[in-house]
Amino acid sequence: IGHILSRTANWLFHHMAGCVLTDATTGIKMFRRELFQTFDLQAKVGWAVIFEMSIKAQARGLKLGEVPISSIDRLYGGQSTFKALPWVKEYLKWFAWGIWYLRRNQDSKSTTVQVRLRGADG
After folding, report:
1. What's the confidence (pLDDT) of residue 115?
2. Which of 30, 36, 112, 113 has CA atoms 20 to 30 A from the CA of 69?
3. SS3 of 100, please?
């Protein structure tokens, strides 16, 4: 169910907000330290920080890239602290804010770069 919800939400956000990324909530984000410090991040949850960074980077016209990754279930590290209601509330907050923010800043010239790793297609 989580996989279906994630794919659906990312597809909707990509198309409704005009986000150049196909998965703005996952992945590794790398920025120069001086640029990172100017983002004025407000999110409090790890994945929400990534979401906010993706949105603000695109609105600033930064070049964004994606490298496909595969997520696996928790193997080590104890029990999950996932709580559905707080997670959904936080996600919807950033989802709505992201659509508003990116549409407001549509004049940004952000581009995306698709990166394919050798052997990643099978």
Report:
1. 53
2. 36
3. helix
